[in-house]
Structures are given as C-alpha cells and as structure tokens.
Amino acid sequence: GAVVSQHPSWVICKSGTSVKIECRSLDFQATTMFWYRQFPKQSLMLMATSNEGSKATYEQGVEKDKFLINHASLTLSTLTVTSAHPEDSSFYICSARRTYFNYGYTFGSGTRLTVV
Amino acid sequence: GQNIDQPTEMTATEGAIVQINCTYQTSGFNGLFWYQQHAGEAPTFLSYNVLDGLEEKGRFSSFLSRSKGYSYLLLKELQMKDSASYLCAVRALNAGNNRKLIWGLGTSLAVNP
To answer: What is the pLDDT of residues B46-95, one digit of tens each?
Structure first.
C-alpha cells in the first residue's frame, strides 16, 4: 500500500513553454503533498507544501507565479512549471503524507525535467 | 538555525557492517527519518525514530539520541545493491505548529566486492 504515482517520469521541453507534473496517491488519501526539487549530487530542496483545498505554502525564494501548485482533491496534486528556462532543469519529486498516519511520507518516482 | 550534518561519502566491503552518522541542530524536533536513494530515483523510507534508542528492521537499524542531537544508520551484511545515497531528515515543528522535513545532503555509500 501507500503508492504515489508521478507522471511524467521525464520530459524535455523548449524554453518558454509550460510543463505540468502530476502526483496521485493511489490507495490512500493525501492531506498534504510536498514538492521537492533536487539538483545533481544535492539533497532534496522543499519548494512548497500543499494541503487539499487550500493555497500552497511556498518556501522562501520559490516563485509562486512560476511554480503553480494545485491540490484540488485528496488524491491529486499538480505542479506546473510556467515559462520554463534551462535553469529549471532538475529532478522534481512529490511526497505525500497520509491522513491519520502519524509519520509516513511516501514519495513519487520523480520527474526529470530538461529545458532546452 | 536548522542544520543537519552527515558524511559526504563512505566506502565499505560486501558482507561488512557500516555506520552512517547524522548530527542535527533543530528547534521543535518531531522525529528523524532515514531514506535510501539510488541515483535517478526517488527516496525510499528506511526508518523513523522519535524516541531515544535503537530501532531494528532486518539488516538496517537506526539509533537516536535526542539530548546529543545524534543519530546513526547501521547497515549489516552489506550487499552490492546497498550502494546508494542515504539521507537523514529531521521533522521539526515550526512556530505555527506545522511539520516540516529538513534534509541532510546525503551520504553516498559505495559497496565494493
């Protein structure tokens, strides 16, 4: 149990275009979804935290107008990278915290974004 | 401030035991996690400690001392597939009582035959 499905696994896009990444909790309800970015050989950097039905809370330095997060239901959260630039190329990972589950965080499989 | 330290790299031999240390300085401590991450993949959960002591789960054990701000992950009977990055993460409660995970930079473990 506790599976988070993340799509796409990898995507290549042109500069200036937008890319949407989806994370779905398949067998549990995710009250909170965390979105991370990871550069090569670096640790996970939290971008934002989203709770179902409310606006996401962004970490300092993360542009909320560039990284749009929607958490419309207990099983789906999306991250849209708008007007992507090469410096946005990174590994994006979502993580869900289960409702009524004290400490479990389940990660999606990650999305490798390359902006050319 | 919030800070987590762990060694950058470690090397060990197949079949041996290795201990990966993690020290932290955080306010509002609310648990410590260890995750394993293979290159290009998402992290997978290994262990969770919130009280002092040792938690054992098969070949993996994790220890916590809250007074010392210290944890370690112990891997026994090392296998080649254990070559990965091991991430220490501390959950902290902020002023608004919201939980947040603070991640270390990870320890890259190489297991040699």
So the answer is: 999 999 999 998 999 999 999 999 999 999 999 999 999 999 999 988 66
Q: How far is A43 from chain B (nearest CA, A)?
A: 4
Residues B12, B78: contact at Cβ < 8 Å?
Answer: yes
Pair B25, B92: CB distance under 8 Å: no
The residue among A80, A82, A104, A102 whose CA lies nearest residue A92 is A80
pLDDT, tens digit (0-9, with 9 covering 90-100), for A15-45 = 999 999 999 988 888 888 999 999 887 888 9
Instruction: Tell me if B23 sits within 8 A of B70, measured CB to CB.
Output: yes
Report d(CA B53, CA A8) in Å as an integer: 40
| A68 has a pLDDT exceeding 80 | yes
Distance CA B4, CA B64 (A): 14
Contact A110 B100 (CB under 8 A): no
At CA A73, angle to CA A11 and CA A114, rounded to 5? 10
User: How many other C-beta atoms lie within 10 A of the C-beta of residue A54?
Assistant: 8
Within an 8 Å CB–CB cutoff, is residue A34 touching chain B? yes
The C-alpha torsion from A85 through A78 and B34 to B104, rounded to 10°, is 30
Contact list, A91 vs chain B (CB under 8 Å): 40
Instruction: Kindly determine whether residue B105 and residue A34, on different chains, have CB atoms separated by under 8 Å.
Output: no
